[in-house]
Each structure stands twice: as C-alpha cells, then as structure tokens.
C-alpha cells in the first residue's frame, strides 16, 4: 500500500540538547487524513518541520513521496517543497504582498497563467470569507484573517501533502468548520492531510481521520493505529 510519508526510528535534537523527538516509526497512506495532537511542548511543530523539510532528523530514516529525504541533495529540495502545502503556526505571509498576491504565489511559481490564477484566487478568497480584502496587506488584517490567507495559500495549488500547524487557532468555531471542510475537500481530491491541533472539537468533525498523539517526543499509540496504512485511494484530478 502506497505510503506518502514513512518514518523509521527518527530522532531529533536541537544543537547539543536532549532529543525532543525519539524513536518515531510510522507511515501515512497516500490520501489519508491525520490529526496530530499532544500537550504543548510535545514536539508537534518539530515533527511537522521534519515533514516539510525545514529540519533534518538527527537520526533515523524519513521517506517522502517514496524518496529518502535525509540524504536528499539541497538543490532538489525546492521541487519537493512545491509538492507540500504548509500552514505555519505564525502564518509567514509575505508582508509587502497583498492577500491576493500571497495566495497567488504557489500558482505563479508553478507557471499557471494569470487569468487562471485570478479565477482560482478570487474563488478561494471568497471561500475563506476574504473576498473584499484581496488587496489588503497582511499587517492590516486581523490574526484570524491572516490565518485564512495562509490557509488559502497552502491549499490553492492542490499539494500532494498538506501540513497545517494549529490552522484554526485564531478563528471562531464556524470558520474553523469551514476551513476544515476545505481540508476535507482537498483530501477527497487526493491530498494527504496532517493537521496539528489542540482543539478536540476539530477531531470529532472528521470521522474518517486518524489521530497521531505525541507525548514528550514519543508516539502515544496504544492501538497501533499509526503504523497501519489506511488507504483511501482517491482520484487525483487535474488542477482545474
Ligand atoms: N529551534 C529550537 N531550538 C531548541 N529547542 C527547540 C526549538 N524548537 C522547539 N524546541 C523545543 O522542542 C520541544 C518541542 O517543541 P515543539 O514546538 O515542537 O512542541 P509543540 O508540541 O508544537 O508545542 P505547542 O503545542 O506549544 O506549539 C520544546 O521543548 C521546545 O522548547
């Protein structure tokens, strides 16, 4: 069964400190939906950073899209990253670009033509409730609005893997449901989704999702569910 992510005995330490992730072994099936939970400081963000290639592990093996990324040459990383949509906990919007241009960025990098970009970006901004704020710079948006721009940017190019760190931390429950629906829709088109969250209500909203629980850098996995590839083979449709 095809795994999009595979970890074998992965450990991570920052500098010479103690390991903050230890002995992580799991795989995620292509097309699956996972929540990543655990107390503050358990290592969720660090695990996500390994997934979107912001960090190399201190030990162990990580395969992404079937390739060993621990030894991946640096010059091949940008192409890998383009296959991954990331919602950062602190948004990381480009401050001098409008909401529209932030969301358009992944499509421009992929060489999509401007007419097609305009349709996709306007539709996406409307979906996240920001249709009237397209020309606004991030500094003039509220935290929740910035978070929605960040989500729109992460999903717009329909990445193969979506990694989201507390993506609903700044929005009300109604908007959280709407954003989650966006992730589910993307997932149904074939994107593998992993969402780190503290929000237990979110977990209940996606009944098909699996939960990975981290506790002090280790997988808390009594049922062994994480190691089981649950494939949801879904058609991969073209961008539009
Ligand atoms: N760049 C860094 N350098 C040193 N230590 C770090 C670094 N980033 C994180 N840590 C430490 O690693 C541990 C795990 O942090 P991480 O941010 O991954 O946890 P988390 O589960 O995402 O927490 P939260 O839910 O509060 O966001 C913490 O003890 C943190 O202090």
From TrEMBL:
The membrane topology noted for this protein in its Swiss-Prot or TrEMBL record is:
Peripheral membrane protein
Where is it found, in Gene Ontology cellular component terms?
plasma membrane
Which terms are listed as keywords in the entry? ATP-binding, Cell cycle, Cell division, Cell membrane, Membrane, Nucleotide-binding, Transport
Query: Which molecular function GO terms apply here?
Result: ATP binding; ATP hydrolysis activity; transmembrane transporter activity
Output the GO biological process annotations, alphabetical, semicolon-separated.
Answer: cell division
Q: Where in the cell is it found?
A: Cell inner membrane; Cell membrane
On whether Membrane is a keyword of this UniProt record, the answer is yes
CDD domains in UniProt = ABC_MJ0796_LolCDE_FtsE
Q: Which InterPro entries match?
A: AAA+_ATPase, ABC_transporter-like_ATP-bd, ABC_transporter-like_CS, ABC_transpr_LolD-like, Cell_div_FtsE, MacB-like_ATP-bd, P-loop_NTPase
Q: Outline the extent of the ABC transporter domain.
A: 5-239
Superkingdom is Bacteria
Membership in a protein family: Belongs to the ABC transporter superfamily.
Its quaternary organisation is: Homodimer. Forms a membrane-associated complex with FtsX.
Its job: Part of the ABC transporter FtsEX involved in cellular division. Important for assembly or stability of the septal ring.
Q: What is this protein called?
A: Cell division ATP-binding protein FtsE
Q: Which organism is it from?
A: Sphingomonas oleivorans
């Amino acid at each position: 069964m095809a795994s999009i992510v595979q970890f074998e005995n992965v450990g991570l330490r920052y500098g010479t400190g103690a390991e903050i992730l230890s002995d992580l072994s799991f795989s995620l099936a292509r097309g699956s939906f996972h929540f990543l939970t655990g107390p503050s400081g358990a290592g969720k963000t660090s695990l996500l950073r390994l997934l979107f290639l912001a960090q190399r592990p201190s030990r162990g093996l990580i395969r992404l899209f079937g390739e060993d990324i621990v030894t991946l040459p640096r010059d091949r990383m940008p192409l890998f990253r383009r296959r991954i949509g990331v919602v950062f906990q602190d948004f990381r919007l480009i401050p001098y670009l409008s909401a529209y241009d932030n969301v358009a960025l992944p499509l421009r990098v992929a060489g999509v033509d401007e007419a097609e970009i305009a349709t996709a970006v306007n539709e996406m901004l409307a979906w996240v409730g920001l249709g009237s704020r397209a020309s606004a710079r991030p500094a003039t948006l509220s935290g929740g609005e910035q978070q929605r721009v960040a989500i729109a940017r992460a999903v717009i190019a329909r990445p193969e893997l979506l990694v989201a760190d507390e993506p609903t931390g700044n929005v009300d429950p109604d908007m959280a449901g709407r954003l989650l629906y966006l992730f589910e829709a993307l997932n149904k088109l074939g994107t593998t989704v992993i969402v780190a969250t503290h929000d237990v209500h979110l977990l209940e909203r996606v009944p098909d999702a699996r939960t990975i629980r981290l506790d002090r850098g280790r997988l808390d996995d009594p049922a062994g569910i994480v190691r089981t590839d649950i494939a949801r083979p879904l058609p991969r449709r073209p961008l539009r």
